[in-house]
UniProtKB/TrEMBL annotation:
Belongs to the KCNMB (TC 8.A.14.1) family. KCNMB1 subfamily. This is KCMB1 protein. One of its GO terms (molecular function) is calcium-activated potassium channel activity. GO terms for biological process: detection of calcium ion. InterPro entries: K_chnl_Ca-activ_BK_bsu. It is found in: Membrane. The chain crosses the membrane at residues 20-43, 166-187.
């Protein structure tokens, strides 16, 4: 009687472990799919792939500029802010080009190097832009990214999805997938050993 209870409990434990492993594998595949349709297209679409050194030539703050966000944006998404324009000397080619914060900055407003988030406090936005401008004037040289193909003549300060970020995005689903497969393999080995022991 006790042996039957132990066997039943073992089978229940194996079933739960097997469901856990299959669930982890399923969740990891869903995460792979989500990353593949969101992060990967932005990474492959970016042409600013080569890192170089940029030297600041001038950093000017112009009068308030209306921010035209991405296409299809509503009128309430348009707000005024000081327009920071940073021009740098590209070490790789020696050209004088305009610097943007990220790829998204160029799409949102090609006339300004920095586009703030929508904030109600305009003084906070102004202070932040002035701080960024003073930092550019203080640190004259810094790493930046440019397009080696020449389709984009401007440069960006940082990539939205760098290679390390892409690898980090795939790290967790990979660990989950590996853990799920390991649990399934261990359950199958346990079942095989149990059957072999019973047969002997």
């Amino acid at each position: 009687m006790l042996g039957k209870k132990l066997v039943t409990a073992q089978k229940r434990g194996e079933t739960r472990a097997l469901c856990l492993g299959l669930g982890m594998v399923t969740c990891s595949m869903m995460m792979y799919f989500f990353i593949g349709i969101t992060v990967v297209p932005f990474y492959t679409k970016s042409v600013w792939t080569t890192e170089t050194v940029c030297k600041v030539l001038k950093a000017n703050i112009k009068d308030k500029f209306l921010c035209p966000n991405s296409k299809g944006s509503e009128d309430e998404d348009i707000f005024p802010y000081p327009c920071l324009q940073v021009w740098v000397n590209l070490t790789a080619s020696g050209q004088e080009v305009m610097l943007y914060q990220t790829e998204d900055t160029l799409e949102r407003n090609p006339k300004c190097s920095y586009v703030p988030g929508k904030l109600e406090n305009s003084e906070e936005v102004k202070a932040r832009i002035e701080t960024i401008a003073s930092n550019f004037k203080k640190y004259h040289t810094f790493p930046c990214y440019y397009d080696p193909g020449g389709t984009q003549t401007n440069v960006i300060l940082s990539r939205l999805y760098p290679p390390k970020g892409l690898l980090f995005a795939f790290l967790w689903p990979t660990l989950m997938f590996t853990g799920g497969c390991l649990i399934i393999v261990l359950v199958k080995i346990s079942q095989y050993v149990s059957v072999l022991s019973a047969w002997q």
